[in-house]
Fold this protein.
Amino acid sequence: MERYYQPEIETASRETIVALQNERLVKTVRRVYENVPFYREKMIAAGVSPDDIRSIEDLHKLPFSYKKDLRDTYPYGLFAVPLKEVVRLHASSGTTGKQIVVGYTEKDLQIWSDCCARALTAAGCTNEDIVQVSYGYGLFTGGLGADGGAMRLGATTIPASTGNTQRQITVMHDFGATILCCTPSYALHIAEVLHANGMTKDDLHLKAGIFGAEPWTNEMRRQIEDQLGIKAFDIYGLTEVIGPGVGFECCEQSGMHINEDHFIVEVIDPDTGEVLPEGTQGELVFTCITKEAFPILRYRTRDIGVITRGKCSCGRTLVKMSKPRGRTDDMLIIRGVNVFPSQIETVLLEKGYSANYQIIVDRANNFDSIEVQVEISNEIFSDTVRGLAERAKELSAALKTLLGLNAKVTLLEPNSIPRSEGKAVRVIDKRKLLD
Ligand code: DLL
């Protein structure tokens, strides 16, 4: 039978959730207006006052927030409480630019732990489980976020953090970890090192994994499930909103339930800012309605997804978001064609290649080129030169069919692409270096 951590919310009626959201949104907007000059000025400039926000129907009247706002007000300009009430800071640097910093009060940390406890429970975790947290601990929210959820459930937590994969495996084996939390690319790397050690999934006690912080396809899910002998669940979140636990997957494994009692989601057209109807793909925008220290309003995530409110077989009524289908800013435009790395990953894995790949984009004489480098197995690697050339040609043809672009394919020997312990680097865009 399906278990919930907070059934009164997770299976609540739509009316209950909307009533909570209305009340919490109105309060948050007023508080933010009074305590954060940045929001007050932005609202005044947009001609809205807290009195105009009476329910979630009025949310669209509020101006958006952007990552740039966090940078411009660095470090504490968006905090809505005095620093003496803040008990924790986290930060994220992203791939470019200055880092951003967010804060949590004691109550914010409790809410965050609740959100992650819901995710862990949906993956089958109880106080009898041993949870190995192999997300990075530190300023990154992954480690301490998952840790807080596991502690909340009374599970036995192993704060392994990232790195030293041999030791991770020893710990996982000897301590009998039953649940693994890390990035999906790191999960595959752990499986790879496990096999290189002459061990298999049968030497471990894992039953489930909770993977997120980076995009991963369903094909990658199948590989992880197969190689580690587990059920693999997705978890979504971002530093600016709270960290992991904004959304989490249930046994249905078809999208993530959003913790709507804490975060209101909207999907918008990234170009016009117009709110789109449910079921339409667009940019995800979140508003925090319970956070004390850092209650961000209408935050533009740049993640592209779809939300749906159909009935879920797990019994949860919380709205579901699709796996993010890329980011508005990781979309590559190559010779005018829009390409998402996830599309390439799907082709690679469907064709039986590994998830160890990199996409190299370059420009010479104003002409963009795209090269897909992917590792092959030892068996394939020992094939004839002609056999390898045939394979590369076949893969290139499949990519052409999908993308409508000629991509160069390079098959690499096993272990030639650097492994990541956190978020994998999938794209090297040399054009950016030229700017
Ligand atoms: O990655 C928080 C997190 C930690 C989520 C552990 C899940 C697990 P940031 O470093 O701020 O926070 O990065 C946030 O990562 O906007 C997405 O683009 C991407 N992302 C996060 N989760 C997923 C996911 C953490 N499940 C950015 N699928 C987000 C795809 C994800 N992308």
About this structure: The mean pLDDT is 94.
